[in-house]
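A reminder before we start the practical. When you read a complex entry, don't treat the lines as separate problems. The point of joint prediction is that each chain is placed relative to the others, so the output describes one connected object in space. Small molecules and nucleic acid strands, if listed, are placed in the same frame. In the example below there are three entries. Take a minute to note the order of the lines before looking further.
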Amino acid sequence: MNQAVEFEEMEHEIVGTVGTPLVDNPKMSTRNVDVFYGDKQAIFDVNLDLSANEVIALIGPSGCGKSTYLRCLNRMNDTIDICRVTGQLLLDEEDIYDKSMDPVLLRARVGMVFQKPNPFPKSIYDNVAYGPKLHGLASNRAELDEIVVTSLQKAGLFNEVKDRLDALGTGLSGGQQQRLCIARTIAVSPEVILMDEPASALDPIATAVIEELIDELRENFTIAIVTHSMQQAARVSQRTAYFHLGKLVEVGETNQIFTNPSHQLTENYITGRFG
Amino acid sequence: MSETTQAVKKSLSRRYRKEKIFRATGMAAILVGLSFVVILFVNIISKGYPAFEQTYIKLPIHFDEQTIDPQGERDPEVLRRADYMGLVKESLREAFPDVKGRSDKRDLYNLVSKGAGYDLADRVLADPALIGQTQELWLLADDEIDTFVKGHVTHSETIPLAGNPVVTDNDGQLRITGDAVVMDSLQNSLRDLVPVEMADEEETVMLPDDGPSVLLELQGGLVRITAYDPEGVTGKVVSPLKPDATDAGWNLVLHETPEAERRVKDKTIFWVRTLESRGLVEKHFNTVFFTSGDSREPEQSGIAGALAGSMLTLIVTLLLSFPIGVGAAIYLEEFAPRNRWTDLIEVNINNLAAVPSIVFGLLGLAVFISFFGLPRSAPLVGGLVLTLMTLPTIIIASRAALKSVPPSIKEAALGVGASKMQAMFHHVLPLALPGMLTGTIIGMAQALGETAPLLMIGMVAFIVDIPQGFTDNATVLPVQIFLWADSPERAFVERTSAAIMVLLGFLIGMNALAVFLRKKFERKW
Amino acid sequence: MEKELYLSQHISQRFNAELEEIRNRVMKMGGLVEKQINRGLKALLTSDSDVGEMVTSSDYEINALEVDIDEECMQILARRQPAASDLRLIMTIIKTITDLERIGDEAEKLGRYSVLLADENTTPGHFVELGHLGEHVKRMLHDALDAFARLDAEAALRTIGDDELVNEEFDAISRQLITRMMEDPREIRNALRISWCARALERMGDHTKNICEYVVFLVHGKDIRHTSLEKTQETMGIDLGD
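Here is the predicted structure of the whole assembly.
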């Protein structure tokens, strides 16, 4: 592995972000974002826009900060005491870290799907209905039913569970559970959906189903997906952002990133040269 | 086979042997523990179960109007204060008309419990129409009688004898002789019963006064044998004989324990046996044990007061410790900032769980009673003290239950837009509830059996009335057991064991409930 | 930003070895083709029909290599899902071997015609220009293969420029041959054969130019096919002087 060692010692400068991190009329916009865990800095000066109705993939080696960055977008990092976020993060031009922004409200607009499927230990119906009930999105049972059915349909799960909506959500298979979590997320009609390695715990077929779903969801939502699989990033996203050690190295059209990336580090990561 | 496999194989037999030894040791330990439990239970149950039956004597009671209500106004106060025991005494006299003499009569009256009077009063107050009637009632026997009937006073043997004995009065002493049939029967029986060497058939054998009582029941009376010889038997009259009595048979009776060592004398035993032969003595289920409070007389005492006190105390404890404990656990786990203070609090809570319980009693005494002026010996204060004692247990169990809920559930709830409180109460708490319940029930079971702290706050008094409210004087079951254990009467011994059985029953029941609840609410995720 | 192309140094050593192997094969194929051109030219210029026959019979080696390398490329695509420069490398190789195989075919033509021409008694004089053109093309191919081996895009661009000269030379030879044909109709048959040889060499030049375009695509990720050289230099900010 001598070559690899030599290689790492060659410092590649990351000065600013190469490519197209910023767009016109972004859905979400982040500027100069730094994230600290206590004294340790995890994210360095990230400037990135999310375009409306697009899927943007965040890729990078383990520990590069992509999940951390993702969790800033819906203030899930608030639950970690020692985590500190600075910079400007906007959703439709509103500062999401402003004192007047209620994180609860934010999370109804920016939903999240997690790596390990985590349905509530309740019935399938109750899983999907929890969010809408919480936020009062349905005024009667019929409307709630409507929301549940629509969400399950959009998540591609309805046909498989339509005659057992009372069954326990945790009794489904892994892929179905993850689709249930997606249904749960879209039931509150968010504007943005954040997905943190949503298919990493699933088999290839379930993964393909989820990816297809992401493609369909793109019509109505803005999606940011963190993924370890470059092939998945290549398949589902329109733009790809490459993170390296907490810095945003390059952002660009997915096609271009995977055929001719501009930054050496991006090239190295994508071709499996290191990281 | 590779080298590694060979090495593993070699070590395998050693490992299996070690495991076998370990398992055997474990089994042995369990068996030892179980055997102790079995011994404990057998001991307690064998001592306690007789207490669940109580001796009753059936007597005709004439509710004489003159005695009960001379004014005829049916005034409850008057009715209550009437001399009901007098009615009982009269009935006894009628049953044994031959009993004369003050001390004899006193002994006769002692057959029936003093509490019978209250029983009769209750009946009359409930139904004044009884006045003027005569009823055959089962009356509670005195505890000495009860003890005798249960066989704890002495071991007796009875041999029916044949033939018709001849009784002659010989200077105050009775001489009993008879024909061959009689004498044969008598001699043989005496030989069987009395462990005295008859060296010479011609000799007169003297039976010592301080030895076992050897008696003859005949002609409706009782004779104590003082000596016997081949010709017959000499004895002293214990209960007068009625030569005109129509009872045909006669018995030889032995009471092994010498009379001087018993509280129940031969005469009394004779009366009881007489009543028994008339079918007037029965053992009934001891409802008194469950319906009345403490009493000086064992036969009138029960655990109702202590049970009520325990329940009231436990209710106070539950109502206070569960919300406070669960709330504290939720706060410490979810909302409290992580700093020096919360660390200090955590350490202290863990330490409090190990503090000797009597310290809490001292605290209760100093703070609740002296400073706040709450009434001593009340379930309220007892409950407060026990709350302090069980809070650490509940907090620790609840925190463990909260920690065991996977954080992914909470994150999922937050991700959908629930606030911290909502995530906690809608999702985490229901999942943690089984563990919390288990902890609480175990804490309650512990509190139920606590004695020392409650002694400190004064729940040691002799409480007769059953407490009705939280500020009434009360005692609790463990303290009641403690008090009864001090009493010498044999009847209290068995009641102590019976009370222990009741307490154990509750503890086992509560623990079983904890296990059941935990199993029922366990959710798989 | 200028990137270095490290074609080895993957974390997977086997992948490194596979790419190394496939590049070596391409170079081998290139070497074979060069040899064939040499032989063909020699056969023509020395009227040696034996060498000419050797050319014809050796063409199969090049074809076999093309099939082999194609197969290997497909395996790599299936198994490795290469991205970025690795992907461009495989694409480049697939295209390059096609063009190499065609060059081989053209060299085989030289051999065939040399046999025919050797039978007739033809004055070697006419082959001087052919020889000149041949040397030119030989050098072009050599430079192109070199540029591929060294991943030198600038060298590749320069070589592309050389194709202009090849075309000019071909035009000149054509004119000469036409003149000769007009002067002496008996020369028409041979002249035509020579013309076809010249045409073969001109085609080799075109294919070599393609290979150079692929090299530029490999190195810079820019597809410069069907773009003029001036335009290419402009967009890539490269000045070749000249």
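Discuss with your neighbour: The longest strand of chain A covers residues 26-37. What might explain this?
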